[in-house]
Amino acid sequence: MPLTDGSFKHKKVISIGTVSELTGLTERQIRYYESRKLIFPERSKTGLRKFSFQDIETLIEIANRLEDGVWTNEIRKELKGREQFIAEAKLSNHLINGKINAQLKL
Asked: The HTH merR-type domain covers which part of the protein (predicted)?
């Protein structure tokens, strides 16, 4: 069954070397962004960093924001705010769907 819901974007399966090639960032830059708590790769059993396609998009955005002169602490605040907004929107949608299902007795 093919993935159609975009869940593949969140699977952390991409190595730091591949991320570097795809983004044009050095591995050192990527590790720096991780140390500044801007990106959160998973670790394999052997300790290798694993990234998702969503992480790659975030890294590109971080690099662009830094190029525009935005400080890492400001980027961190922006990313946290976005994550909180998305989480609240998902919760709201879940509650609305629950109310609709209750009214329709589904």
From this structure: 13-81
Own/partner pairs, 5-10, CB within 8 angstroms, 24+ separation: 8/53, 9/52, 9/53, 9/54, 9/57, 10/52, 10/53, 10/54
CATH class of 12-104: mainly alpha
Read off the pLDDT of residues 64-98 as tens digits, 9 standing for 90 and up. Answer: 999 999 898 898 888 887 776 566 666 767 677 67
Nearest Cα to 59, choosing from 89, 28, 90?
28
**Residues 6 or more apart in contact with residue 11 via CB below 8 angstroms:** 52, 53
The alpha carbon of 45 is separated from its chain's Cα centroid by a whole number of angstroms, namely 21
Domain boundaries, the chain: 12-104
The whole-number pLDDT of residue 72 equals 87
pTM listed for this prediction: 0.68
Query: What whole-number distance in Å separates Cα of residue 101 and Cα of residue 105?
Result: 6
Q: Which residue has the tokens 């602490």?
A: 73
